Amino acid sequence: MRTPAPMIAGIVCTPIGMIFVFTALITPQWREGHIQLGKSPSIKHDGLWESCIKVVASDFKHCWPVSGAYQQDPSVLGARGLMLSSLSLCGVGIVLASIGIRCWMDFPLRNVAGASGIIIILSGCLSLTALGLYISKMQVLGTDLDTRYRGGTSLYFGWIGSSIEILGGMALSLSFSLPKCNICIGSRNKDKNSYKVNS
């Protein structure tokens, strides 16, 4: 059986989107703002797990695990949980898609592939929710309220990855409406044919 194009598109897009979302999760560029470090203008980056300061005029960069009020903020904790849940669901969806996209048995598992698409769409929606939650509270996270922050590159990775995941999930969900595999059904019926045995 030739794998239908929507299934191929879904199983290709989904891992790519997952890589982007994972990159967004682990990188410390969820927000960035200009600060004054002594006499040196610097840029501070905050992520879900790590914060960094980079001096503009040099290559000096120092990072440390997030702590204090920023770490305990419900928006940061919520974004962490949603992103981790998104990655877990996406992983489950990829496993189901790998099982369902081909005639592994006597008939195609179209419903399994379609269900994986629904799970992957939900995964993309969870990561988008995490991004929206963080952005809505970005200026008031932690105690550094005097610094004007803007969205960092990690957010862009998250948006791109979530969108690709949703597109991949939509492609896989089309498996519900794909025609049945005639070759597989024919093979199944052929196996059931009875033969006369000469005694």
CATH topology-level name of the domain at 5-29 and 71-179: Butyryl-CoA Dehydrogenase, subunit A, domain 3
- Mean of all residue-level pLDDT scores: 85
**What percentage of amino acids are in beta strands?**
5-15%
Number of helices: 6
The profile of the biggest β sheet is: 5 strands, antiparallel
CATH architecture of the domain at 5-29 and 71-179: Up-down Bundle
Q: Roughly how much helix do the residues carry, as a percent range?
A: 55-70%
Radius of gyration computed on alpha carbons: 24 Å
Number of strands: 5
> Topology as H/E string?
HEEEEHHHEHH
Q: What is the CATH C level class of the domain at 5-29 and 71-179, in words?
A: Mainly Alpha
Strand order of the largest sheet: 4-3-2-1-5
Provide the structure class: alpha+beta
How would you describe the shape?
Answer: elongated
Distance between the termini: 38 Å
Unreliable spans = 191-195
Pfam family, one: PMP22_Claudin
Transmembrane segments: 7-27, 82-105, 112-136, 156-178
Protein name: Claudin-23
Membrane topology: Multi-pass membrane protein
What is the gist of this entry?
This protein has 199 residues and is of the alpha+beta class. It has helices at 5-26, 68-72, 74-100, 110-136, 153-173, 182-192, and strands spanning 31-37, 40-46, 50-55, 61-65, 149-151.
Keyphrases for this structure?
5-stranded antiparallel β-sheet; 199 residues; alpha+beta; 6 helices
